[in-house]
Design brief:
5 strands; TATA-Binding Protein; single chain; 29% strand; five-stranded antiparallel beta sheet; 39% helix; alpha+beta
């Protein structure tokens, strides 16, 4: 009986760490060669905000001068009702525009199903498609 209780306690502890730990960051960076040479900072910024809204995100914080856009989406009861955040960083150096995105799911220490990685790729691909078509 004591052994069964120990095994059960260990399982509960592991599940608690997976669901209640720190934050997981899923980072996908696209280099300068992924942005068309003619894309400006303003075009990339406008495309990022448009895609974010189209994908169901809400703008949590917007600092255009700093090139930082923080988007949130929904809530998850299993992660203490804290919404995931997609942080987008846009920069332009020597006429070359770059975009970087990072997905953070508060309350999780592992991206078991690849949700964060998929969200970043979906967002970046949609932004790149939009700026390429303009």
């Amino acid at each position: 009986m004591k052994r069964k209780f120990s095994v059960l306690l260990a399982i509960v502890a592991v599940l608690a760490m997976i669901g209640c730990g720190g934050a997981v960051m899923h980072d996908v960076q696209l280099g300068t060669n992924d942005a068309p040479a003619t894309v400006t900072f303003d075009e990339m910024w406008n495309a990022s905000t448009k895609v974010g809204v189209q994908q169901g995100y809400q703008i949590f914080n917007s600092d255009k001068d700093g090139g930082v856009l923080i988007l949130t989406k929904g809530r998850n009861v299993l992660t203490q009702n804290e919404p995931p955040q997609l942080t987008v960083i846009i920069s332009e150096v020597d006429g070359t525009c770059t975009i970087d995105a990072q997905y953070v799911q508060p309350g999780q220490i592992a991206d078991l199903f690849g949700t964060g990685k998929k969200a970043v790729k979906k967002f970046i691909n949609a932004v790149m498609a939009l700026v390429s078509n303009n």
